[in-house]
Amino acid sequence: MLLNIFRRTPILKTGFPDIHSHLLAGLDDGSKSLEQSEEMIRLMLDLGYTGFVTTPHIMSDYYRNNRDTIFPALERLQEHLKTVGLTVRVQAAAEYYLDEALMKMIEKPDQLLFLGDRYFLFETNMFSQPLTMNEFIFKLSVESIRPVLAHPERYEYLHQDFAKVEELRDRGVLFQINSLSLLGAYGKAAEKLARTLIEKEWVSFLGSDCHTPLHAKGLADVARDRHFKKALDLPLLNRTLV
Length: 242
Prior knowledge:
The chain is of the alpha/beta class. Helices cover 35% and strands 15% of the residues. The protein is globular. It starts with 15 loop residues before the first strand and ends in a 10-residue tail after the last helix.
């Protein structure tokens, strides 16, 4: 259970960038306003985060975002932060939902939004591995794009068959886990898989997946978790992006 008491003590002694969040106001199920975005960023800065790559959803049926919606929203947030006196680097990529629309999008990779140079953050439905998963991974590899599976610990089809996790890793998929998973925020099965991935040192990115100030406040309680500390000692790629 997440604790409601927020402690303004830096949990990231050497600083750390977050690479998965929903801080752009009004684009998806994340921030509802610039003021709410500011609140989340302030809370995370207090914890020792040093920069952000925020990743709005791109889903053909729900959130039809693209460069024309994301970059203007990013500029609005950057201007707002300057106005209130916050100096922090905020960039934008996206969290893509794997469906037929995405399969068509990746045929024009110059239009995609990446973490850093060629890391591509994507998610799937929670219950069954997409039939196009292997084809999708292959098409990205042809373009020298590294697939990054967002919060693999949350997918039920991976809870039920760890061999699928191993297969994805063998195919070159990198894993990004949500820090709040270590507190059981998404259930016990997700917590267990997140811890297993850290123990195996199969985690390439840590993300907050912050949608609301409540998520940002919950991050304060992750500090005491030994698996979170172990994850921070891994050669995480977060530090190469911001």
